[in-house]
Amino acid sequence: MNRTGFLKHMRRRLLAAAATGAALLSGVAAANTAHAFPQLNLPVMSAAILSSGQAGPTPAWIAFCKQMPDECALDSSEPAVIGLNQETWKLLVDVNERVNARILPVTDQDHWGVADRWDYPNDGMGDCEDIQILKRRILIEAGLPRRALRMTVVIDELGAGHAVLMVRTDRGDYILDNKRAAVLSWQETGYRYVKREGSESTAWVWLGNQAAPIVTATK
């Protein structure tokens, strides 16, 4: 099947679930009331990941920032760490589950015809970084500070490059991931952490290939 045929096939599969990023935004906003958040146990406190100097972002991130500069701006007046309460924890879990369920994972090569492109999955399809970018936008629209929501590059359990969204909180750094419904602390993912957006400037920071223990029962 050629790329055009592949995309037509994927779009037919998505007709039954036509909600895209805009629908997700409105759905989360509708649920974001004082009575919409049932009690959830907060995660156990964990240590924040350590960074060690600047790292170069991927070329696809640079291209994304040129196209959408506001997405990559950093406001130093925003908090770099979120105070994690039950309402915010429920929001993180809800957004992770909703976006994972509604965006069909597709490689950049099949989707766009290029090896690597960072963009919004506005047609209901996208790969790992596209899915995390959408989660970040929804969380920002819900009132969380962009500065505490950091795009992050890891090496996954297969030894391949993978993008996740790191949420920096006063209880540790937590990961929103399209491979898992659960929101986990970075130590629970089993990934090796390479680099992420910085919190002090637009430069990325090196995470030194810090390893997390392997977790299997998280799907």
TrEMBL record:
<dbReference type="InterPro" id="IPR006311">
    <property type="entry name" value="TAT_signal"/>
</dbReference>
<dbReference type="InterPro" id="IPR010319">
    <property type="entry name" value="Transglutaminase-like_Cys_pept"/>
</dbReference>
<protein>
    <submittedName>
        <fullName>Transglutaminase-like cysteine peptidase</fullName>
    </submittedName>
</protein>
<dbReference type="Pfam" id="PF06035">
    <property type="entry name" value="Peptidase_C93"/>
</dbReference>
<feature type="signal peptide">
    <location>
        <begin position="1"/>
        <end position="31"/>
    </location>
</feature>
<keyword id="KW-0732">Signal</keyword>
